[in-house]
Specification:
- There is one protein chain.
- This protein has one domain: Thiol Ester Dehydrase, Chain A (Roll).
- The N and C termini lie close together (10 Å).
- The model has no long low-confidence stretch (mean pLDDT 95).
- The chain has 141 residues and is an alpha+beta fold.
- It has three helices and eight strands.
Length: 141
């Protein structure tokens, strides 16, 4: 893999009431939504969000996701979600860290893997398309 300056984005989320359970703790499935918000911000940072992907002839479904819950986000707390692009040559691997802003406490670590699918053929690409390298500022090897 190329040595590239890490692409990273962060978002701040005010935990809304509709994301929590009766104990005012964020329901575990809602963390996936928080990852998506940060992932979209990361993709926008290098001009390759989902609309750009589609316009370039590729879709990038998530094929793997891993989450480790370390602590709990609570109603009305502010959380920070940091998304970091770790791999891009054959797939997109994005790592995430969710922390409580007030305490700095780590709440969740996660990662997602996305692969390119050629929209016209519906075939999975075994390496990332040239457009991704272009968006990241590199020539495809």
């Amino acid at each position: 893999m190329h040595n590239v300056a890490l692409k990273q984005a962060e978002v701040i989320i005010d935990v809304p009431f509709f994301d929590v359970d009766a104990m005012q703790v964020v329901w575990h499935g809602n963390y996936v939504k928080y990852l998506e918000v940060a992932r979209c911000e990361l993709l926008r940072s290098f001009n390759y969000d989902y609309t750009d992907m589609s316009d370039s002839g590729y879709m990038w479904p998530i094929v793997d996701m891993s989450l480790k819950y370390v602590g709990s986000a609570l109603f009305a707390h502010k959380i920070k979600v940091v998304a970091t692009l770790k791999e891009w040559e054959n797939r997109l691997r994005i790592d995430y860290l969710i922390t409580d802003i007030a305490t700095g406490k780590k709440l969740t670590k996660a990662s997602t893997i996305q692969v390119a699918i050629d929209i016209a053929t519906r075939q999975m690409c075994f390496e990332s398309p040239a457009i991704l390298f272009e968006k990241l500022g590199y020539a495809k090897p």
